[in-house]
Amino acid sequence: MFRHTPLRYATLAVLAAGMFAAAMTAEYFGLEILTEIAILAILVLALDMVAGFGGMVSLCHGALMGVGAYAYAVLAAKAGLAPPVAMAAAIAISGACSWVIGAICARSHGIYFIMATLAFGQMAYSYAFDSAALGGDDGVSGIPRLDLSAIGIDLNDGQSFALFCLLALAAAYGAAVIILRSGLGRSLTGIMHNEQRMRAVGLVTWRVKADVFGLSGMIAGLAGVLAAQHIMFVSPGLLAWTVSGEALVVVILGGLGTLVGPLVGAVLFVLLKHEISNVTPYWHLVVGVILVAVVMSRANGVFGWIEARVARWQAPRVISSRKEQVKNA
Amino acid sequence: MLETRNLDKSFGAIHVTRDVSLKLERGERRVILGPNGAGKTTLFNQLVGELRPDTGSIHLAGEDVTALPVATRARRGLSRSYQKNTLFDGLTVAENLALAASVATGNAMNMWTDSLAKPEIRDIVDDVANQVSLIPYIHAKVSEVSYGVRRQLEVGVALATRPLVLLMDEPTSGVGPEMAKGFHDLLNNLPRDLTLLIIEHDMDLAFDVADTITVLNYGEVVFDGLPEQARGSQLLKEIYLGSWEDA
């Protein structure tokens, strides 16, 4: 079950402070990286909800982000809807698509679930690639950003947009925590631990999986809407399975099923990508080696490793404190 | 409360349930006996919906539930514990009970409020933990408690669904004599209006708890009657009770 620990609160505080400080001090390139981190972090939060707390390893979350991005692009740039309405509609469309995928795939497990979600992702990619209405290979351009000029904020300014994305990330994190702590989220965790028993106590398990998958899809859709506004252009590449694969790498790198770990993973991944690509174009190789090292270490990602070290450090103190309590009693 | 009519089930050429008809009244405590392979667990699996009978029907509180899925039957009051522990190993004892209680109270699909914080769920968790003597382990992870405690929790999770009928598949399976005695008290202290159907090999427990006894052999009901009649039955001695009587 999801729970915050002092270490998790501390990590969140450090991340929030670091990101806010970066947003206030960084130049153009730094703000672009920060925005990229925030959008990726929202996507991996969505993926961790289903993979880390429901055992549903999805290879279509990139496509769900793409659905959000395309839906926003078409509604705002082509249909002329007001950006706030287009944003809400795009998130809802992404959530609805996700619910349907979740409901269909909920009865499969393990490798079959992964393959089924991959198939849905590839269908979305192929459709976007071939659809004239979606601009085919050329995608959709001229996507407007949200207009907050009424409250004196210009989102066309890089700093304001980065802060806006950080705010969206905070909201997505809050939503994920509420969902995972709710009856629905706890039921999902129960299903991951023992689906047969959850059914035996009266739970319609496919429905729980579909509902959480749908909510996760809404968060992925939010990432897509922000990605579309960020680069003001969408193309089928956004829906490619490699985007989903990359998100999965980030979740594993950070720490599956911790919610905080994937945020750490997103920061590390984007920073590594940019730093290493300054030195060599083969940055994927280096990230690959790091991922293999993390997986082979049997730690639950970088954050999981830190949590394990802290727990080991705390263990003798907890035992001696209990002994002291018993002695006093 | 629970009735089966002419239940039949085969796996290929193997006939595992033959024309089984049972009728349990509200509050009745029935123990099912039978040698290994007699079809006891297969009968349970059909009762809860994990297996579909080839022919025959199952009625819960007067309603035909034969076509209903497992989860629906459970929500209507048919709960079970398993012969092999089927728990949520990574979670605490309290969380295990709370998961079942959240379904029983209609909170399992709620996406806004923390189900563990709900007073009605806490009440069920405390109540069941007390009933099955789990209070000392309530915050321990399942993976950290002994096998015997897990057997108690196995029954506790089933009880936390607030069932009308509780099916228990060998609740004392694998526990020592001391803990088995504890199960006598546990079962005797359950509410009297709860209908119990228990598969059990522990004869002391069977005769201590049972109002009625059913014996299955090769998937067929070969005895259905009172414990005293079971003790004197020559047929039972031959197929099952011989070793116990002699001992």
What do we call the CATH homologous superfamily of the largest domain in chain B?
P-loop containing nucleotide triphosphate hydrolases
- Major sheet description of chain A: 2 strands, antiparallel
Given helix and strand content, the structural type of chain B is alpha/beta
Assign an overall shape of chain A. globular
CATH architecture of the largest domain in chain B: 3-Layer(aba) Sandwich
Outline the low-pLDDT stretches of chain A. Answer: none
What is the domain tally of chain B?
A: 2
- Count of runs of 4 or more consecutive helical residues of chain A: 12
Instruction: Report strand % of chain A.
Output: under 5%
- DSSP strand (E) fraction of chain B? 15-25%
Helix content of chain A: over 70%
Let me know the number of strands of chain A.
2
**Cα distance, first to last residue of chain B?**
36 Å
Largest β sheet strand count, sense and barrel closure of chain B = 6 strands, mixed
Q: SSE string of chain A, helix = H, strand = E?
A: HHHHHEHHHEHHHH
The CATH topology annotation of the largest domain in chain B reads as Rossmann fold
Q: Please name the two chains that share the biggest interface, counting residues whose Cβ lies under 8 Å from a Cβ on the partner chain.
A: A-B, 28 and 36 residues
The strand count of chain B comes to 10
| Number of separate domains of chain A | 1
CATH class assignment of the largest domain in chain B:
Alpha Beta
Structure description:
The complex is a heterodimer of chains A (329) and B (247). Chain A is mainly α and 329 residues long. Chain A has one domain (6-240). Chain A has helices at residues 6-25, 28-54, 61-78, 83-105, 110-130, 158-181, 183-200, 205-231, 241-254, 260-279, 283-296, 301-328, and strands at 140-141, 233-234. In chain A, helix 2 (28-54) crosses helix 9 and helix 10 runs antiparallel to helix 12 (301-328). Chain A is globular. The mean pLDDT of chain A is 92. The two termini of chain B are 36 Å apart. Chain B is of the alpha/beta class and 247 residues long. The model of chain B has no long low-confidence stretch (mean pLDDT 88). Chain B is globular and about 55 Å long. Helices cover 37% and strands 24% of the residues of chain B. Chain B has helices at 40-48, 70-75, 93-104, 119-131, 147-159, 177-188, 203-209, 227-232, 234-246, and strands at residues 2-11, 14-24, 29-33, 55-60, 63-64, 78-81, 165-169, 195-199, 212-217, 220-225. In chain B, helix 3 packs across helix 4 and helix 3 runs parallel beside helix 5. Chain B folds into two domains: 1-77 and 163-247, Rossmann fold; 85-162, no CATH class. Chain A binds chain B through residues 1, 178-179, 181-187, 189-190, 193-194, 196-205, 207-208, 211, 215, and chain B through 48, 50, 70-72, 74-75, 79-80, 86-91, 95, 98-100, 102-104, 107-116, 157-158, 160-161.
